[in-house]
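Margin note: ligand = 5-amino-5-deoxy-1-O-phosphono-D-mannitol.
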Amino acid sequence: DKGNHRHFMQKEIFEQPIVVAQTLRSYLQRLEGQIVLPIPEFDLSGIKRVTIVACGTSFYAGMVAKYWFEQFARVPVDIDVASEFRYRAPVMEPGGLMIVISQSGETADTLAALRHAKAEGQTIAAVVNVPTSSMAREADLLLPTHAGPEIGVASTKAFSCQLAVLAALAANLAKAKGRLSVEDERALVRHLGEAPAAINGALAYDEAIEAMAPLIASARDVLYLGRGTDYPLALEGALKLKEISYIHAEGYAAGEMKHGPIALIDDAVPVIVIAPSGPLFEKTVSNMQEVQARGGKVVLISDYDGIEAAGEGCLATITMPKVHPLIAPIVYAVPVQLLAYHVAVAKGTDVDQPRNLAKSVTVE
Ligand code: M6R
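Resulting structure:
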C-alpha cells in the first residue's frame, strides 16, 4: 500500500526517519551511550582485515563503510563488486571477516561470493534486510537492517539503514581494537541517534527539489561529484538517476575531474556537487569552480555554511541540516534520492518498475 504517496519509491524515501531509528534501536543503547551489536558471541578484536562484497547500491554503502572502518578502527578493507570478486583470485586473510551487504539477501553474485569466501574459511557477516533470505541463513553472523519491505526497484531506505548498521559496526570494531574511548563512544552514539531527525530535516527540502527537477530532466548527461564518503554518494546519485530516469549519469571523485571527465563539461551538462562543510569542503569547491569556469551548471548540495561560502553562481543549491560527518552520508542520501525521484516523475518514466530491471537479481 502506497498510502498517500504516488509511488512506492516516494513512500520509502519518506519512511527513512522511522526505519533508520528502528534499525538503530537494535544497535545503540542510547541511555548507556553504548553501541552493542546483535552478535554478542563474536569477538571483533582479532580482526586484521575486512573484505566487503555487494552489488549496486549495497556496494556503495560498503564503499562508505570502508572509509569508516579505516578511519575509526584502522583496519584495512578490501572491497569489490560481487561479480568481480570471485573471478580475480582474491587474497583473504586466514580467519578473516567478510561482510556481504544486500537488501534482498538473494542477489546471485553476492550469494556466490559469500559461498566462495566461506569455503575459503572466512567468517561471514551479512548486513541484510530480509531476515529469512539465503544470505541471512548462510552467514555466520547476522546484522539485520530493519527497513521493512522495499518494493521500489530503486533502493532507498535499505541504503540508509545499511549505512546505520555499518557505522555501528565500524564503531564497535574501533572499540574492540581499543581505539574508542568511553567518551568518544558516547559521542558517536549521540551523533548516530541524531540521524532520524536530520533525515527529517533533509526531507523538508522535497518541494524545492521537485521545483528544480525540470532543470535536470532536460539534460542528456549529468555528473555527480564528491570526496571522501561523498564519493560513493556521488556514484549512488548517478546510479539512482540513470536507473529510474534513463538519463546518462556518472559519479566521480571530485579530484578526478581534471584527469579526464572535465572534457565533458559544457553548459548542457548539470553537475551535482555533494559537499557538506568540513575538512574536504575547500578542495571540493575548488573542483566545482573548475567546472563553473568551463560553463558547467552546478547544483550544490551542502549545509547552510557551505552554501553561504560557495553557493553563488550555482544553477541551484540544496541546503541540508548541519550534521556530524559520521551521519552526513545517511542524511545526504536523501536529496540525492529525491532528485532522482522528481526528475523521473518529470520525465514520466515508470519510477517503481524501471525498464529492464528486477528488484532482486537472481542470475549471475
Ligand atoms: O538486494 P541487493 O541489495 O543485493 O541488490 C543489489 C542491487 O541489485 C541493487 O542495489 C540495485 O543496484 C538497485 N536497483 C539500486 O537502486
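The pocket of 5-amino-5-deoxy-1-O-phosphono-D-mannitol is lined by residues 55-58, 102-104, 107, 110, 153-155, 239, 243, 360-361 (CB under 6 Å).
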